[in-house]
Structure formats: C-alpha cells, structure tokens
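During the no-cost extension, the postdoctoral fellow (Dr. R.K.) reprocessed legacy sequence entries with the updated structure-token encoder. One reprocessed record is reproduced below for audit purposes.
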Amino acid sequence: MESIIKLTGVTKEFRNGSGISGVSLELRKGDIYGLLGPNGAGKTTLLKVITGLISPSFGSISLFGQDLGSSYSSSMRKVGCMIESADFYDYLTPVQYLKLTASFYPNIRPERITEVLEAVGLALFSKEKIRHFSTGMKQKLAMSASIIHHPELVIWDEPTNGLDIEGVVHFRALVKELSANQGITFLISSHMIHELEQLCNRVGILNQGVLIREGEVQELLTDSLSLEEFYITELKKGKEVLENGGIKSGN
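Re-encoded structure tokens follow.
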C-alpha cells in the first residue's frame, strides 16, 4: 500500500533539552492515524517537523515517497494542515477568508468555498465577520481552509478544541466521509480518546518525546476494554522505561 508519511529516527532537540527522540512511523494511504500523548509529550513538535515548519536535528522524513527536504513544495501542495490555534483576519467574513486561502492554490472552483463551509457546518454564518465567531466556529473555519484544495493528506492538531457535542459529532462524520469518499489520509493529534477510538484504524502514543507504542487499534486493544484503558496502561509502562533509560522529555 502507498506510503504517505514515513519517518525514520526523527529527532528534534531544543536548547532546553526537550523535543522528540528517534521517532519512526509510517502512514499508509487511507489511514486515519490518531496521535495520543499527555501535554508536553511532543505531539505538536512532531507535527511541525512533518510539515516542515521546523527542521529535525536528525532523521529522515518522506511525504508521498519523496524526501521532504528536496521536494517540499510539491509534497506540501497535497497536504492540508491545522496546527495549534489558527490566526485569522477577523474583519473578514468566512467567504472572504476562504477566497484568500484559495488564491494560494491553482484551479480552485469558486463553488468550492460553499462546499467546504457546508462540509464543516458554517454555511449559515458565511457572511458574518470572523471577529464574532466562537472558538469552535474558528476551528471549523480552519478545518475548511485546510481541505479547500482537495488534499491527499490532512494533519490536524487538536481539531475538536472548542467544539460542542454537536460539533464533535459533526467532526467525526466529516472525517469518515472524507476518508471513505475522497480517500484522504488523516493524522490527528487529540486528547479526545473516545473520538479517536471511533475514528482511527491506527494510533501512536507519544510520551516525553518518544513514540512508546503504535499500531492497529484492534490489535492494540486485544487485552484492553477501551483505548483509554490501553493508553493509561501504556503511559505507566512507558514512564518506567523512560525514567530508567534517562530519555529526554518532549515539548
């Protein structure tokens, strides 16, 4: 199966001693991969390294079978991402903001703006100023911007932040629809373990900058009642191993 992301021994060292250490993983086409970990585990750092926002200290990264460093522009054209909190020109409306976003990509149909606003549940608010939006509405707008160009890979960092119950349910349906009908591969970092259990076919657990466990959800849950139970158990095991090995913590 086609490799979408492949990391081999990726390390990012910061001056304060934090970062990620020796991360190796692979996402295949069609995966919905959930990245789990406590605050400060290195999840956002890892996503930034994958998207080229920061450079790794060591290791190799390939997207769509090509080295990220030598094919950055061509690779990232196929990627939609939302990492940390999105910034907006809050005097714009969603339609104006998405027109600006679409201008960075070739051949985006005008009606695509309406399509993505409907997809994320913002169609009724398309002419309101972004300054009046709640945190959850801004998250939805950031999601719409990340998929406007029909990406093959979507990377979302804590996408359910600020979403109400209805919004979380809508988010889950959106991911399933985009995966099933458009073949999009997802890498999602989230604390919403229950949601990831319902969505993801594969998960990885990052702790203190180290990928301590990863694999197919159904295989990992053989001896656990839920992904949450498995996650807590693995964190306890990983903490003991990392403390004994003296591995540096994440960011």
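The radius of gyration is 18 Å. The longest strand covers residues 3-13. The remaining legacy entries will be reprocessed before the final report is submitted.
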